[in-house]
Design goal:
The complex is a heterodimer. Chain A has 20 helices and two strands. Chain A is an all-alpha fold. In chain B, helix 10 runs parallel beside helix 12, helix 10 packs parallel to helix 19 and helix 12 packs antiparallel against helix 17. The longest helix of chain B is centred in the middle third of the chain and has 35 residues. Classes of the chains: A mainly alpha, B mainly alpha.
Chain lengths: ~475, ~500
Amino acid sequence: MLGMLGVLATRRYPNLREGVSIAAGVITFALVVALAVTISWDAPPSLVLAEPLPGLPLTLTPEPLGVLFALVASFLWPITTLYALGYMRAHHERNQTRFYSAFAVSIAAALGIALAGDILTLFVFYEILSVATYPLVTHAGTEQAKRAGRLYLGLLMGTSIGMLLLAMVWTWQLTGTLVFTPGGVFDDQVSDGLLGVLLLLFVLGTGKAALMPFHRWLPAAMVAPTPVSALLHAVAVVKAGVFTVLKVVIYIFGIDSIARMAAADGLLILAGITILMASLIALRKDNLKARLAYSTISQLGYIVLGGMLGVVAGAVGGGLHIAMHAFGKITLFFCAGAILVTAHKTRVSELDGIGRRMPWTMAAFTVGAVSMIGAPPVAGFISKWYLLTGALDAQQIFAVVVIILSTLLNAAYFMPIVYAAFFKAADADALQVAHGEAPLPILLALLTTAGCALLVFFFPGVPLALVQQSVGLG
Amino acid sequence: MSLLDHFPVLVVLLPLMAAPLCVLIDRPRLAWALSLAVSWLSLAVAASLLFQVLGSGPISYRLGGWPPPWGIEYRIDLLSAYVLLIVSAIAAVVMVFAYHSVAAEIAADRIARFYAALLLVLAGLLGIVATGDAFNVFVFLEISSLASYAVISMGRDRRALHAAFQYLVMGTIGATFILIGIGFLYMMTGTLNMQDLADRLPAVSDTRTVRVGFAFLTVGIGLKLALFPLHLWLPNAYAYAPSAVTAFLAATATKVAVYVLLRFLLEIFGADFSLRAMPLDLILILLGLAGALSASLVAVFQEDIKRMLAYSSVAQIGYMVLGIGLASPTGISAAMLHLFNHALMKGALFLALGAVAYRIGSVALRDLAGLGRRMPWSMAAIVLGGLSLIGVPPTAGFVSKWYLVLGSLEQGLWPVALLILLGSLLAVVYIWKLVETAYFKEPQTAPVAVREAPLSMLIPVWILVAANLYFGLHTEISVGVARQSTVQLLGVAG
């Protein structure tokens, strides 16, 4: 019965325009909330969609971590649609129908990923998501967009078909099950070396997690319209990636076995390198969206890092960060889009003094930036707290150092923007063009998400409870 | 005997008898209507045969009432019923599609003869599958081959003649090899009945004659199968044949050749002999992989979509052969599954392409620019068919890829699994070249009024596309039958 609601939520493909999109978004969110409120975790309802392979049904089984992800994704969908309404009109984009349909399918796929009861179902929706977001990335239809689309699909499909699928079939062959099971599915007979190989295949195969060296698609995909970058590349797509990683860590391998695997240490170091490298690159990017993209890569690294620590607190931090980063990053992207449509500026160096004319936008930007840095009183602080605790628990000095260093780097690439926007005088050229605040739908959307980022800091109960439930702390 | 008992031969006789009728009628419309009726009747008969076999086991039919091994036996077991159904279903769908497509591509005075030849191809293919007699296989093979040379040569491009001639030469060599192989077997065993052959061969399997016969048969079937590196005739033949023919042949002819390979290797010679005593398993794996990868790579660089898909067919045949080479139940059922699924996806792709050719008169990549907007349904079908070809879930292609990878991992051959997936990635590349052109490129020439294809074309295309999705999600039928027939084949062998 409740599973049905979940399916209903995932199966909506509204093909009409904005009104329907928003309505569908709100209904979807309401359904997910209903699901989250009424569900009992001890006996979660499960729904079999189909059975493509004997013994391998496609199932949707809500579990806490997935519900959290579903909540975030379905909550941000109507808001993004609202934002897109302002953005697409102000920017005179073409092919809007295709845009909204692909958008809806993507969200449906993201929800499918969130509620998937086994890794095969997750994989199916994962691939649907890759294909459905492709027309969004190439929306502009320019040569650059097409190149980006090629890179996008090539990397995502390449890693997922080349490694994730292989890891999945291998797991099936070894254990005979692909259902997410608390504590993992492998028994003692599988050697540690093979487990390590599988973990590498799983994690690296999840190209959407943007772990270096498979991160190139993310900056490239920034040619997409801003609402797409915001929702898909700050929320749905990349979060689907790290969500997959966490699911695999918690429910396929089990946190305990991660703790004793050498491959996990290797991935930990890789995640650390990703965090630092991406932050350094972000520091040098002048294009605002590119800077945000690299910041995303580094933030995703945190989540992978959290999963690889092999302690409960780390996984909790990783899970929380999915939600926290979503609010912060979507706000930042909304702001970047708002600046683009009103002031027609894309570069960091052009933003001097813009805070005076777009005070609301830049205030929201500041909230997002603080959240990224992980300072109180914004959401990012909470997840970073748990990550640090986890790193200390696991006695991973490397991870501690990485987290602290990257916090400094985050501050180094976000704070100058805030400073310039509010305290530097605008140069003469910029003053020639008169413009005010962004259009209302845009403003509404970005203030909501910024507000959420603040609210979650003061009331972290719901996401925290969900994540702790899923790692067995309840 | 009631009519039901005659079904095994009826499925072959129907198209065989209708073919001369088509020539006698010599009126395009009537010939089409007759072919359509016959192909749907064959489908109905094939479906009822499958149910009979599922219900009560293999059917043996004695032609002319002579008991085997003196008379010719028609033997329908699960595998043949399965392939019969695939072939006749594809034929039925293609016939619906053919009306407009053929009218546009072939001169009116030739249409009746065209349908006659097409029916002969169908009769031949069905005959190969239905018969239980090794020599009969050769006879039907010749019927279908000769008729297919004729239909290919009717393509509107002059190069079709050359392609048909090339196919004729290669095909004849293949058929001759098969005949020689059968001759050797007959010499050693004195029988042509497949089951008798299977009984008597183990006793003489150590002789050089049998081995030579085995080699001749394998190479001959390999030629018909377009097994790498014997595939050279296929791209031209597919590229220049009329659209309906390409779709039909791509979805059925090579499948029947795979069937013959399965039949000879596993039933007549037995898996122990052909895959273990002879080093054929390794050869098949290597050739299959080489075919899958090299043909996919060549496909990436094709500018003519039909040719591109033709190379992709060679690659898919590589996968099937690879599955047989794995020599495990999973591998062999993966091969059968891919046989079925590939018929669906290639059928859908070539038919959709035929619809495109019908409207814009070209299948060159550059002429497809911007077509996603003007022929949305046809292009969407191509995209979905393409996804199935790549093996993206939840399409049928994914299921067969899954079993292939599983099969190779079971044998501990993880490099093979990796290479199979690499092949899928190459498929992504060539399919996406097509998608990008169709959806994100502006047409170069001034937009001529191009409309969506007529319904009589779209419906068959979408039936196949829907089948791709259906069999990607509900595989009780396809996987179940493939598994059971594997057990039967290996059971007979072991």
